[in-house]
Amino acid sequence: MTASNAYGQLEDRFRRLSAVQGALAVLHWDSAAMMPPGGAETRGEQIAALSVIAHELITAADIGDLLAAAETVDLDPWQAANLAEMRRLWRHATAVPPALVEALARQSHDTELTWRSARAANDFKSLAPRLQSLLDLVREAAVAKAEAFGLSLYDALLDEYEPGGRSARIDALFTELEAFLPELRARVIDTQAALPPALPQDGPFAIEAQRALADKILDVLQFDRAHGRLDVSHHPFTGGVPDDVRITTRYATSDFTRSLMGVIHETGHAQYERGLPLRWRGQPVGQARGMTMHESQSLLFEMQACRTPEFIDFLAPLVRETFGREGEAYSAANLRRIYHRVAPGLIRVDADEVCYPSHVILRYRLERAMIDGALKVADLPAAWNQGMQELLGITPPDDADGCMQDIHWPGGSFGYFPTYTMGALAAAQLFQAAVAADSGILPGIAQGDFRPLLAWLRPHVHEMGSSLTTDEILTRATGVPLGTAAFKAHLEARYLRG
Amino acid sequence: MTASNAYGQLEDRFRRLSAVQGALAVLHWDSAAMMPPGGAETRGEQIAALSVIAHELITAADIGDLLAAAETVDLDPWQAANLAEMRRLWRHATAVPPALVEALARQSHDTELTWRSARAANDFKSLAPRLQSLLDLVREAAVAKAEAFGLSLYDALLDEYEPGGRSARIDALFTELEAFLPELRARVIDTQAALPPALPQDGPFAIEAQRALADKILDVLQFDRAHGRLDVSHHPFTGGVPDDVRITTRYATSDFTRSLMGVIHETGHAQYERGLPLRWRGQPVGQARGMTMHESQSLLFEMQACRTPEFIDFLAPLVRETFGREGEAYSAANLRRIYHRVAPGLIRVDADEVCYPSHVILRYRLERAMIDGALKVADLPAAWNQGMQELLGITPPDDADGCMQDIHWPGGSFGYFPTYTMGALAAAQLFQAAVAADSGILPGIAQGDFRPLLAWLRPHVHEMGSSLTTDEILTRATGVPLGTAAFKAHLEARYLRG
Asked: Range of A284's domain?
């Protein structure tokens, strides 16, 4: 090995790693969207085997030497950023022993499957022992990473989803939110109480028609069907790889509005993946920057662009046409009332953007307590219900719509939740900057033309890949690092002066 | 390492290999049934990476020593058979250098994708250079294996699909077939010419209705939806793993009979996979014996059981009900005329069982010539058309329905085709034995009850896995090794005395 070809060798290694991770992404998508239940056990073995193999690829004995050698040679800025990402991934991977990686993959697969039936049966007791076992393994990994990185247990986990993310920063942002959100929420609720309520839209809305509407909206949002699919899964998500993005939704015949906005949300994720730098496919620097930036793109589509009056005016006639409905309940004004309605509710994924941060703050507190060892899984339902009462003033009637509503913990993801709200802040900041930079974006959205918006997002966000930090991308694109100002201004404009 | 735990270590290694191969099976299924076209390039990289990894697992430096050590200890008969299969797979894998394995995976993926568009455009010239490159790589692998095993080039390839299969044996069987098939075919055609022709069934037959009929038939055939799916792909196949079997079909609104029998065919494959010994999941001895035995199970369902008058009488009312049709064209008698019609045609997968062996004999001759170097890809269309004329008396009007009709060669499979006809022989032999052993099988089929047939197939074929050779399984189940007698008797009974 010479120093000059060390970097090239690393690119080869990480290209292979990316192929294995891409295969894993297909297996995960298939598990959620296609797999018959009897395939679960074998699938668990496949996922565990590929996870171990991926871990072996990145922790191979010579990677450390290759990294050190490559760091002594001159590289262009993207190569240097790629090398820095390689080292970051290598540090994460080498911090955790292979047996623990395999155990985590297996246990999270099993726990996720148990969660599906336990949630359906509202049976927390059947989930609790597996979730506790999974939490024990996650904590073991957190301890190992915390030691290696000199971070707290929670920050060591957070860093995987949000590179460079620290709880001190989150605490500061969340404290700012907690300072204005309760009063703002109360004012919005008062304001909306004085207005006529949203008229109910009577179902059933045939699933075939909802699918047809989703297809139309995918076209409007420039979703490229040559490089992606929309399917159905229990828990909507975006999976696959940048050139083959798999998004999912779920349909309920009683209501089309949730699934539709869900599809728009996932399309925001999909567009980020599609727009990642083509030159860097299969390399760490070519990947999405982190979950904050990923969520900023889904929320920019869902909460910013597609809840504007401009888009809702465009959407309403499509809704009437698709479902063959008429009348005031299907007017743009009523659709806006539905999509702008603010009210505390039980379910995070159905929450309005004013209440959403409270759902995240609850989960952030609880998962920090679980990771720090201060909260046992058995005590989670009581802690959850108490937190819901404190933060949103409501108490869940059961665990299915309480602490069992999310896939994240049963799937082994601790340290992920705060990125939803950091993403919401980033989305507000980016949309504000985009609209200010190009006066054609909002008129485009009004006509169902998202090309101007995408033309701004591509160079400012998507094509940056992981070449810069989240704050660097935001500072270049919006002039300031991540903050709460644009989000606060957005909420006030939409809900108090809308 | 001690000799006593060498065998256990090998089981661990092959379990992991099986998980990687299972992942590959899902990726292949997805490529054919789900993947958008723009995902092809990345998918090719994923498949190539996992193929290399699988190859590395089986060729790891210590496997040879582990095999030698395990062969010195006492094992039970299934363990011993498992160990023998491990050595067989190891010999195949170590014979080919890793770079060639990767090149083959890549080139066959690319060639298969090119074939899809080339066939649609009837453009052999666009396929030829890639297919020749692929053939060159296949021949390189054949040379390596032939040297390692002391076999001819063709037999070295054949052995992968049909363990222990040799072209001398195929030549003998095919010579027997060629001795009686042309005259039998002529007599059947004369016999059928004297009978009233099949009445046409006028389409369109809605795809949704065809799908509903397929679903009913899957239930009749005891296809377990908790462990499998039916989807659509360009070229129907059975994929996935034993506990998650993925079968595919294609629908044409002009005709439901082909897709329906296609589904039955794939269900025969699926039932074999499902019935493989549960105790040996993930181990070589737990896999299907080879492609002859696999095809025997699909043809036992398609050609033997489901073309009996008993089954067609059961099927006819389901057809009338599903499509809302009445009259003589939808009678059991007419459906039998359709399903028993013998006429030389262009397309192998649509061929009747009297003509089918001629399609296989043609491909067997041509692929032997290609592997031996006597036939270049550029000369394939002419050789194909000449062979079709000699064997079936017809000349294809174009290459799309000529030498480009099959996925096998573009997919890199040379040495596979003869197993179709060996499977047809085995199917006749096994069905004859099953019906003789259990007088409840045919009355069961007449009522749409396939449990008696499956109850015979499970212990006699499926649950044997790879613990015995093809001939040993057949001899135990039917009293004699693979031969042409039962097939000949079957054709004469059905088509000359039917």
From this structure: 151-498
